Amino acid sequence: MTQADVAQVLDIQAQCYPARLLEDEATIRARLDSAPDSAWVAEHKNRPCAYLVGYRSVVGNITPLSSPFDIPAQTDSLYLHDLAVDKSAQGFGLGPQLVDMAWEKARAEGLKYSALVSVQDSLNFWKRLGYEVMEELCVNQTANLHSYGPASSYMVRLLG
């Protein structure tokens, strides 16, 4: 993903998420600046039709919705913050393909885990990809999780 992709990313985000989960342009641009090598797009006819944004983290740490990525010096996981696919491109497996690409990068860097927050009834999608709900979170991280809404779940996957 590049800064030139952000306008289309915002369009895809608006198709896929309710207003309460939308993140503004400045937040997305700042996150891309902080972790440019862990943000990807899938393109069709030279236009993004799906995207995945992640960053290096530590299992159990959750970035609150619409906050800057907090990237610690020592990391053990690739946190997948946002995955979305344009409605016109759904059904082609782009989401899992982007996730596979992210896992490959994480493994190559020696990261042991991948983590994320599941929103909008996506729990079963992530379970099919090998993620499991992590129930035990410290108080601060539980508050961060709740910024995504009551149906959100923090999930972790061991990268083999």
Describe the secondary structure blueprint for this structure:
Layout: H1 6-16, H2 25-34, E1 39-44, E2 47-57, E3 77-85, H3 94-108, E4 113-118, H4 123-128, E5 132-133, H5 139-146, E6 153-158
Parallel strand pairs: 3-4
Antiparallel strand pairs: 1-2, 2-3, 4-6, 5-6
Distance between the termini: 26 Å
Largest sheet: 6 strands, mixed
Number of helices in the DSSP assignment: 5
How many strand elements?
A: 6
Report the principal-axis shape.
globular
Give me the strand/helix succession.
HHEEEHEHEHE
Strand content: 25-35%
Report the average pLDDT across residues. 95
Question: Which spans of ≥5 residues are poorly predicted at pLDDT below 50?
Answer: none
Lateral arrangement of strands in the main beta sheet: 1-2-3-4-6-5
Q: Considering DSSP H and I runs of 4 or more, what fraction of the residues is helical? A: 25-40%
| Structural class by helix and strand composition | alpha+beta
Radius of gyration: 15 Å
Précis, in short:
By secondary structure, the protein is of the alpha+beta class.
Overview of the molecule:
- The structure is a single chain.
- This protein is an alpha+beta fold and 160 residues long.
- The protein has five helices and six strands, in the order H-H-E-E-E-H-E-H-E-H-E.
- It has a six-stranded mixed β-sheet, sandwiched between helices.
- Strand 1 and strand 2 form a beta hairpin.
- The mean pLDDT is 95.
Features:
alpha+beta, 160 residues, globular, 6-stranded mixed sheet
